[in-house]
Amino acid sequence: MDKLTLAYVATGAAAAGGAGVGGYIYSTRGTTTPKEQKKKSISEVLRESGKTVLSTDAEGSNAQVTEWNQRKEAYANALENELIAEIGESGQETPIAKSNSVDVEKMKKWCRKYLESEFSSTGDVIYKKVLKWCTKEAA
């Protein structure tokens, strides 16, 4: 075997080996675990979909008073599966009874908690409640 033939054989073997490795990587690319993607909060998803999240600032702020008063009045006619809860000091939740005199600060506190919770799907009960009570474009 002369040097030229030996060079061709070596080049062919290297190319075949490279193709084999490349083929393996290509075929298994979907089965490797990608780096965990950052989970989005419900408020991020709502903003990305063009919704206006109501301000949940404490009582001193007059931000969006009209919208919050509309939510307060609408709460009296809420369906059972739309009711939210009062968030206690230690995080315990107590259902807020239907009433058109519901404390807006309790609604804001509930929204504050759940706007920052992890988004799972648009069919999720919490997502639907946040959409209804915590956005300008209430569902």
User: What is the typical, i.e. mean, pLDDT?
Assistant: 83
Total domains:
2
Strands side by side in the biggest sheet: 1-2
H-E order = HHHEEHH
**How big is the Rg?**
28 Å
- Main beta-sheet annotation: 2 strands, antiparallel
How would you sum up the global shape? elongated
Low-confidence stretches: none
Q: Could you give the distance between the termini?
A: 80 Å
Based on DSSP secondary structure assignment, what is the total number of beta strands?
A: 2
Strand content: under 5%
The structure class reads: mainly alpha
Count of helices? 5
Share in helix: 40-55%
Structure description:
With 139 residues, this protein is mostly helical. The protein has two domains: 1-36; 42-134, no CATH class. The protein contains five helices and two strands; from the N terminus they run H-H-H-E-E-H-H. A two-stranded antiparallel ribbon has the order 1-2. Helix 4 packs across helix 5. The longest helix has 26 residues, at 3-28.
